[in-house]
């Protein structure tokens, strides 16, 4: 469960990025957060990752109050999240296998367990045959699949994806969304930040729309999203 209560964020420049935002996302939901550039969606993503702090309000993730979380606990909290970025953020000098394994090595998972778990997650994302490849030998869609595998390897309860299809063509974007949908159907809560109207319309999920820092709609979509 993600609870965002009366969140305001004003930057030192005076820019009011978020204005009295209230959102609840239940366990196992698939939710899009969308809006044009400057709508506040990236700020909200940073608050959920605890990369930024709200000016006022509360955020609870799985009953953890992020504002009361000690700084030393933040890395542990982030490891409980799966995070996918637009630019993949893969280690260029390491193979597909090692990119995914890295997420387990940093938390001290034994090598034997890694050898068992990484092939399973690569099979889930359709990259079993590419385990020896370097990122630059892969297509954009394949690189994003590696990033998703890395995000999932530690079995997070929540997967956050920031513009995961932003660097992909339409066909690859739809494939990635279908993969995220499959992951969601296995029980993971999925939150996708996007500005792609086309993707949102095709997926038919819950859509939370921000505009200039305000929440202007929150509804299930099977068709056109109204941003007015």
What is this entry, summarized?
The chain is an alpha/beta fold.
Protein architecture, described:
The chain has seven helices and ten strands. The chain is α/β, with parallel strands linked by helices. The strands form two sheets. The chain has a six-stranded mixed beta sheet, with helices on both faces. The chain has a four-stranded antiparallel beta sheet with strand order 2-1-4-5, with helices on one face. α3 crosses α4. The longest helix is centred in the C-terminal third of the chain and has 16 residues. The C terminus is likely disordered.
Topology record:
Blueprint: E1 2-10, E2 16-25, E3 30-34, H1 41-48, E4 56-61, E5 64-65, H2 74-79, E6 81-85, H3 96-105, H4 111-124, H5 140-152, E7 158-162, H6 170-185, E8 189-194, H7 197-203, E9 206-211, E10 214-220
Parallel strand pairs: 3-8, 3-9, 6-7, 7-8
Antiparallel strand pairs: 1-2, 1-4, 4-5, 9-10
Helix pairs in contact: 3-4, 3-5, 4-5, 5-6
